[in-house]
Fold this protein.
Amino acid sequence: MAANDLAQELPWVDVRLGETPLRVMIARTEQEKRTGLMFRRRLAPDEGMLFVYDSPHQMTFWMKNTLLPLDLVFFGPDLTVTEFIEGMVPGVGRSDDELPRYTSTGPAQYALELASGSVRRLGITPGLSLEIPLTLLHSGK
């Protein structure tokens, strides 16, 4: 099977991060979050994946089977940016033990993966708000 055949496809949703329009897939279920952006060969500059959790907690991500370098933006329950990690390294071909873990320094309830370089390119800073219809965050469970 080709890598593109293994990439997760979820519905695209239009959101805004500050003044910037984005298209995101929303990972709500444990399986959707576990699969994330694995095997995806392309991610447009205005695309990403939003990971939704029921409550704030310290989050840890890894790049298992990920082909693209990514930036990771963390949000509090009010959908404002709390912190971010730039330049997460693709993990395809590495054993689980060799994969770096990327952990938030504080609790977050949502996380957004974007193409590497997006944090700088979009001017993402703490306090910036994500605008998304709230019904989309918890529907489809």
Observations:
- The longest helix spans residues 30-35.
- Residues 3-130 form a domain with the Jelly Rolls fold (CATH 2.60.120.1140).
